[in-house]
Specification:
The chain contains 16 helices and ten strands. With 415 residues, it is of the alpha/beta class. The chain is globular and about 75 Å long. Its cofactor is [4Fe-4S] cluster.
Length: 415
């Protein structure tokens, strides 16, 4: 490998990290360096990249330790057989970069992943060393997210959880068949075993901290994973079902979806075109329905086309479900329970909570609902309100043209 300076390495390895979508920085414990103790904070305002649940922007240095890899996964641009320029940081180079960027107020944390070099254990040792040095040698209190390697020794993965705020282990592909075909060197059993071990450690440590204040923190922001969408034949129904299973079995904070992107010198087994980016967006919306709106996986799957298993691209999954199961509507907004109001297209969690508060004091009309939603036209066919009953709309056989978002031609030079 040719000798590269730090700037050249950073250019290569920051670009190589862009394919990993799971770099959220939410959910961790609050730490700060006020009073002159330590370096960094998990609370300040950032400049780009990741967002906390309250809307704060968190900037992360997102890089790979190296883009060299001994594996030959068909979908990965950094696979062994790929003809890409290679680079590698040492653990101390990543530590110094992180501290230098933080002191210049460029970042507030680190997202570190890596290709596999020499062996899984060796690579995991280098990743852990970065986090250990930041925490112990420099008292860094900012956010750290480590991408762990499931083939590594469980003790090394455990050490990652002691230093990182969040850890993630990628399941890579939604189906077992897809993983065997496109990443034959990876094992679903080992991946899920590592996730199960991480879940147990998180639970055990949380329990220990309730009894002993001196017990160490362990991945306080939990664990996450990522799936590649469109590289294999998995349908949206397959992906939604797998994601729900991962949430339930391993207590994940997030499942991220990454639309497959064609890569240079691609394997012949890969599709020639990337899936529509809207497909990735619809999967995130379906994920939201299960996590915050009370939908069961089978209900989200029911919103997909029965013949293809794919969610519609022109309307969101919530509207697709409502149109497919119109017998549940219209709902009286002054009487319906919260779990059903959350199923009304156009009403979000905040709007439903506002409706529940307001209707304790008076009956709400359509104008009241219009103040809580972006498009009351989307809501009208599905609700009954004071002075409003959608008689004509409820009997209309095809509601979709009335409630689907209108397509508009964007103007390049619009003011």
């Amino acid at each position: 490998m040719a000798q590269l300076d730090t700037r050249q390495k950073l250019e290569i390895l920051a670009d190589a990290a862009k394919y990993d979508a799971s770099c959220s920085s939410s959910g961790t414990t609050k730490r700060k360096s006020a009073g002159g103790k330590g370096i960094g904070s998990t609370e300040g305002m950032g400049i780009c990249h990741a967002y906390a649940p309250d809307g704060r922007c968190i900037s992360l240095l997102k890089i790979l330790l190296t883009n060299s890899c001994i594996f030959d996964c068909h979908y990965c641009i950094n696979r062994k057989s790929s003809n890409v320029r290679r680079a590698r940081f040492t653990a101390q180079e990543v530590v110094q970069l992180t501290l230098a960027f933080y002191k210049r107020n460029y970042i507030e944390g680190l997202f570190l992943s890596s290709g596999i070099i020499r062996s899984s254990n060796y690579t995991m040792e280098q990743i852990v060393e970065v986090a250990r040095s930041l925490r112990e040698d420099h008292d860094f209190r900012g956010y750290i997210h480590l991408k762990t390697i499931p083939d590594a020794d469980p003790e090394l993965v455990h050490q990652a959880g002691l230093y990182a705020d969040r850890v993630s282990i990628n399941v890579e592909l939604p189906t077992t068949g897809g993983l065997k075909r496109l990443a034959p060197e990876k094992s679903e059993t080992r991946i899920e075993g590592a996730m199960a071990g991480m879940k147990s450690a998180i639970i055990d440590t949380a329990d220990a901290r309730t009894r002993y204040r001196s017990a160490p923190r362990f991945a306080p922001a939990g664990q996450s994973t990522q799936m590649i969408v469109g590289a294999d034949a998995a349908t949206d129904g397959d992906i939604v079902t797998r994601a729900s299973s991962l949430y339930g079995r391993f207590g994940l904070r997030r499942v991220y979806y990454s639309a497959f992107s064609p890569i240079p010198d691609a394997s012949a087994v890969l599709p020639l075109q990337r899936p529509p980016l809207m497909r990735e967006h619809r999967l995130y919306q379906s994920d939201w329905l299960m996590r915050f709106y009370g939908y069961q996986p089978r209900e989200v799957v029911a919103a997909a086309d029965p013949s293809t298993g794919m969610l519609p691209l022109d309307i969101d999954p919530k509207l697709a479900w409502a149109l497919r199961f119109r017998e549940h509507f219209p709902l009286d907004i002054n009487r319906a329970p919260r779990e059903m109001l959350l199923r009304v297209p156009g009403l979000g969690v905040k709007a439903v909570n506002a409706i529940l508060r307001a209707r304790r004091w008076r009956r709400l009309g359509l104008d009241d609902v219009a103040r809580l939603t972006v498009s009351v036209a989307k809501v009208r066919p599905f609700i009954v309100a004071e002075g409003w009953r959608p008689v004509a709309l409820a009997d209309k056989l095809d509601l979709k043209p009335l409630v689907a978002p209108r397509r508009e031609q964007l103007e390049l030079f619009a003011a």
